[in-house]
Amino acid sequence: MKQNKAYLTIKKTTPKKRDAQKRITDFNPTYYIFNKDEAQNQSLRCLKCPVDVLKGMTSEFSFCRTGCPLENKIPLWIEQVKNGNIKEAFKYSNETSPFPEILGMVCPQDVLCQGACTITQTETGSVTIGAIEVYLNEQAFKMGLIPDYGQKIEKTTKKVAIIGSGPAGMSCATFLLRAGIGVDMFEKSDRPGGLLTYGIPNFKIQKDVILRRFNWMQEAGLNLHLNTDISNSKQIKNMLDNYDAIFVALGAPKSKNANLKNEDAHGVYHVMDILKHAQKRVFQDFYEAILEDKNIVVIGGGDSAMDAVRTSVRMNAKSVRCVYRRDEHSMPGSRKEVINAKEEGVIFEFNTAPKEVIVNEKYNVKGLICQKTELVEVKGQKRKKLNVIQDSDFVLECDIIILALGFDNFIFPWYDTAEINTGKWGEIIVDENKRTSNRRIFAGGDSVRGADLAVTAAADGRKAAYTIISDLTQ
Ligand SMILES: Cc1cc2nc3c(=O)[nH]c(=O)nc-3n(C[C@H](O)[C@H](O)[C@H](O)COP(=O)(O)OP(=O)(O)OC[C@H]3O[C@@H](n4cnc5c(N)ncnc54)[C@H](O)[C@@H]3O)c2cc1C
Question: Of 53, 313, 383, 386, which is the most exposed, with the fewest CB atoms less than 10 Å away?
Answer without folding.
Answer: 383
